[in-house]
Amino acid sequence: MPTVREKMLKPRFTKELELDNLPPESLTPFWIELIQDGLSQPVEIPVLVAKGKNPGPIFGITAALHGNELNGIPVLHKLLNNLPLNRMKGTVVGVIAANTIAIHHHKRRLYEGVDPNHIMPGKDSGSTAEVYVHRLFNRVVNQFDYLIDLHTSSFGRNNSLYVRADMKNIDTRTMAYLQHPQIIVHNPPSDYTLRGSAMEHGIPAITLEIGDPQVFQIQYVKRSIRGIKAVLREFELMPRKKVAVPPPPVICKSSYWLYTQQGGFLEVLPEVTDIVEKDQVIARVVNPFGTLIKEYKSPERGIVVGKNVNPVAQTGSRIIHLGLIAKTEVF
Ligand SMILES: [Zn+2]
């Protein structure tokens, strides 16, 4: 695992991501102002740009759009600080913390509890959150030729290392396979997400879900970096080389969450990436005195993409995220 950089780099303070004027073979930190707070101070996001020796595509990677989803941050630190700039074509842009406000508060959402990944690409004139994401999109993301958006599960849940991608689009299918995650879920991009907005603007984009919230999980981080490097080689930003290929992912044609109907203390039995069979008991809910209220069974065969690990489960709590495995090579 590469180490982080020891020598301090001088950041540029700006309102736009300016890539054209950067010298070849350079690594440049930016603080990009998106909005101002009520004390007239800039609200800025940290962006690290690695520009290769020769021209080529602009490959964007965004982390921590949800402020408690942190595994993408060490991915970008270790990746960008160790790229072979003298042998690289094009530019890799790492948005280290897309949602700086929520990071301060160890929270997921943006201003007024708004989920930034439900309002993309925002509005030029609107609420604080709408303007914030609009400028994030237009000042930064819109310059990318490709995008990988790094997320994790939410509080109280565990995720596998999995990709959401439109497997019917050749670029995003390639990005998904080369990422070599544990699971790929075919998921056409939905409106108002960063991935969906990027796709609408002609930027092939996938979402990589890297484990659990508010932690750095080094094994998932290492595997994510290996996958991103494979994608960078495929799109010719980095020279090709032979590498050991991890086991192939499980491909899911679709996925959905199962929810509790009764409230109580919840125990979810399978682990992420376990296969569950139809009618297999997957969870138990007990009342405050330890009496079984209900056992939940899997309605069909599938793979556990994610699971709830928060035992306090009111009616309507998530149980498992069940992926329906594609029977043959359908994509
Ligand atoms: Zn997220």
Describe the fold and architecture:
The protein has 331 residues and is α/β, with parallel strands linked by helices. It has two domains: 12-234, Aminopeptidase (3-Layer(aba) Sandwich); 252-325, OB fold (Dihydrolipoamide Acetyltransferase, E2P), CATH 2.40.50. The protein has helices at 72-80, 100-104, 128-139, 170-178, 194-200, 218-234; strands spanning 12-14, 26-36, 42-51, 54-63, 89-95, 146-151, 157-159, 161-165, 183-186, 205-210, 250-259, 264-268, 275-276, 281-286, 292-297, 302-308, 312-313, 318-325. The strands form two sheets. Strands 1, 2, 3, 4, 5, 6, 7, 8, 9, 10, 11, 13, 16 and 18 form a 14-stranded mixed sheet that branches. Helix 4 links the parallel strand 8 (161-165) and strand 9. Helix 1 packs across helix 6. The longest helix has 17 residues, at 218-234. The chain is globular, with a radius of gyration of 21 Å.
Name the features.
globular, 18 strands, binds zinc ion, Aminopeptidase, 2 domains, 6 helices, alpha/beta, OB fold (Dihydrolipoamide Acetyltransferase, E2P), 331 residues, 14-stranded mixed β-sheet, 4-stranded antiparallel β-sheet
